[in-house]
Amino acid sequence: MKKIGVIALASLGLLLASCGDKKEAATAGQEQAVAEKQGNVFTVDVAASKVNWKAFHKGGFAPRWGTLSVSTGELSVADNQLASGEFVIDMKSLKVDPASVTEKDKKYTDLEGHLKNADFFDVEKHPTADFKITKVEDLATPGADAVAGANKTVSGNLTLLGKTMNVTFPAKVDIVDKSATLKAQFTVNRADWGIKFGTDETDPAEWMISKDIEIAIDVKADQK
C-alpha cells in the first residue's frame, strides 16, 4: 500500500511555513491542563485565519508546502492579555501548493490524496486536529527564527491522529480594540505524534522523509 514519496503536514496546526529556512523548533512534551477562559471571549474569524505547512525529503530536498483551514475556534482576553484559546483544524481541507511539485512525473493532486490516506493523516478516521492553549507567558528575547515581532511564549496541547502532545513556541500576540491575533512559526517532529511512513526506522520509506514539519499559524479573532 505504501509507496515512497514526500510528506507534508499539518496541523495542527496547529500550526506554518513559508518557503524559507527551517523555523524555530517547538518544545514538545506531555499533555497539560488547558488554560481557563477569562475575561472576554473572541470568536475566531475562520475566513481570515490559516495554517500553513512545509515538509521535505531528508537533507531539505524537494520541499512541499500547502495549507489547512481553521474550522472553529475562540480566544479569551483578560486585562488586555491573551489568557486562553483553542481552534480546530479541518484535516480534510489539506491542500498542496501546485508550485511545490515541480517534477514532470508527479502531480500535486496525487500528493494531496496520499497525505490524506492512512499512510499519513488518515482524514476519514481523524477529520480534525486541534490546538488548546495551556499557558501564555511574556517573551523577553525571541530566537532568530521566531516569527517577526514575537512577544509571547505560548504552550498548548496539539492533537493529531488522536494523540495529544504539549508544544511550546514563540508567538506574536496583538490585542487591539475588539480584535485579537496570534501568529507563530515553528518546527515539530512528526514522529512525536506517530506519523510514520515506513514500518520502522530502517525502512527506506521512512528515512527518505525528514521528520521536521514546519508549521505557521495565523489566527484572527473578534469580539462579537
Automatic annotation (TrEMBL):
Matching InterPro entries: Lipid/polyisoprenoid-bd_YceI (IPR007372), TTHA0802/YceI-like_sf (IPR036761)
Gene3D superfamilies from the UniProt entry: Lipid/polyisoprenoid-binding, YceI-like
SUPFAM superfamilies in alphabetical order: YceI-like
One Pfam family hit: YceI
Location of the Lipid/polyisoprenoid-binding YceI-like domain: 41-222
Protein name: YceI family protein
